[in-house]
Design a protein that fits this description.
alpha/beta, Pyrimidine Nucleoside Phosphorylase, Chain A, domain 2, 8-stranded mixed β-sheet, 8 strands, about 45% helix, globular, Glycosyl_Trfase_fam3, Anthranilate_Pribosyl_Tfrase, amino-acid biosynthesis, anthranilate phosphoribosyltransferase activity, aromatic amino acid biosynthesis
Length: about 400
């Protein structure tokens, strides 16, 4: 790092320490510099299993200025600790655009006025198998139109991309393809990884191998999730966001400021009885929900599993081990062949979308409607439509369903 940058960073970090707000352009400039440095991570060394782990990490970072390794977390932690402003968040968002994220997305037209858009932060501490993707299909079977953006898992037990791959769904990579898919199925999934260049994806792969990498990535890519939430082309009036940090009010305020078209939204933060988080509605503890209406934070409420019409379960009831057939268990839950903590977790997370768009006026009524859709075969039918909607490998899903007795 040359002297000019050292002096610039010194002034910026002192201001953050003094809890002074930065301008949009200052954040854009600082994060742009860090982008340039972090893209020098050499992921290839991570895969060299014959090298000691610490050496692999050092070799992967050998092209990065050591000072950058200290500045990045200090910069981000400081901004969020003092309370991020809308201008600062816009600076982060602009830096992502500067670095070629979301090319091809900017001119896409808004979607249906009945569309729910959902995106979770991932990396929950309980490490559940992917919940939100099966849930959007279940909600679609009950009559909701739901669009989700996600990715393959880097830190959790299973990501949205892992589930869609395993049922033969051909993930959408361009926004104009969403509308076509929604003609056949009420649910659609767009692959967020397609919005990032290869080098940026390498960063996530590298960080998944680093001790405490999940927490570092959540800090480094926090702005990225807001940008996904606030894509101009995702002008869906109903929005839900699972977020595994407790400050849902802050998220709600930023959403209300940045997503000026949001008619109604929910920011959810689930926990278990020990306070560990999952970025879903919880049936193992409390869920904190910040509600947005007409671009304003309306209220923050707390729900119990009983509010959703299900039992309070233990964490062991909703987590699946590596030896479990996760796909089979998920599909069994979706088509009504299981009645346990995991299946109820899927049901209540589908129910939230029915409440969000006004199909029901209580959480429990949403749960009841999802259960009806499972019982009458609508969810099974919607699963097939979901894969068919992108010309996916329908035979893969049919084979999996045939094995469910």
């Amino acid at each position: 790092m040359d002297k000019k940058w050292e002096l610039w960073w010194e002034k910026i970090l002192i201001r953050i320490q003094n809890q002074d707000n930065l301008t949009q352009e200052e954040v854009r400039k600082g994060w742009g510099y860090l982008w340039g440095e972090w893209k020098n991570i050499e992921k290839g060394f991570v895969t060299k299993k014959f090298l000691p782990e610490k050496l692999r990490m050092l070799m992967s970072l050998k092209s990065i200025d050591p000072l950058t390794v200290l500045i990045a977390p200090t910069f981000l932690t400081g901004i969020f600790a003092k309370g991020i402003t809308v201008a600062e968040m816009k600076g982060f968002i602009q830096s992502f655009k500067d670095n070629d994220w979301f090319n091809g997305y900017q001119d896409a037209k808004p979607f249906s006025q009945n569309l729910i858009y959902t995106n979770g932060f991932g990396g929950d501490e309980i490490k559940t198998v992917n919940v939100s993707t099966p849930s959007i299909i279940m909600a679609a079977a009950a009559g909701a139109n739901v669009l989700k953006m996600g990715s393959h898992s880097y830190f959790g037990a299973s990501g949205a991309g892992n589930f869609t791959d395993n049922i033969g769904y051909k993930a959408i990579t361009l926004p104009e393809s969403v509308e076509t898919a929604l003609i056949i199925s009420r649910a659609a999934y767009i692959n967020g990884e397609s919005a990032a260049d290869e080098k940026t994806q390498d960063i996530a792969t590298f960080m998944s191998k680093v001790p405490y990498g999940m927490h570092i990535m959540k800090a480094l890519f926090y702005p990225f999730r807001f940008h996904i939430l606030c894509f101009d082309f995702f002008q869906a009036p109903f929005q839900q966001r699972g977020i595994s940090v407790p400050d849902t009010e802050l998220v709600g305020e930023l959403v209300a400021e940045l997503c000026t078209y949001t008619k109604k939204g929910m920011i959810v933060y689930g926990t278990d009885d020990k306070g560990l988080s999952l970025d879903e509605i919880s049936n193992v503890g409390m869920t904190k929900i910040t509600l947005i209406e007409e671009n304003k934070v309306k209220d923050t409420i707390y729900t119990t599993p009983e509010d959703w019409g299900v039992k309070h379960r233990n964490v062991e009831d909703i987590t699946l081990s590596d030896s479990d057939n996760r796909l089979k268990i998920t599909l069994e839950s979706m088509v009504g062949k299981r009645e346990d903590g995991f299946s109820e977790l899927l049901v209540i997370n589908a129910a939230q979308y029915l409440f969000l768009n006004g199909m029901v006026d209580t959480f429990k009524k949403g749960t009841d409607l999802i259960k009806q859709s499972i019982a009458n075969g609508s969810v099974r039918e919607e699963l097939l439509k979901f894969v068919e909607s992108t010309n996916g490998n329908l035979a893969m899903l049919e084979k999996e369903l045939a094995n469910i007795k």
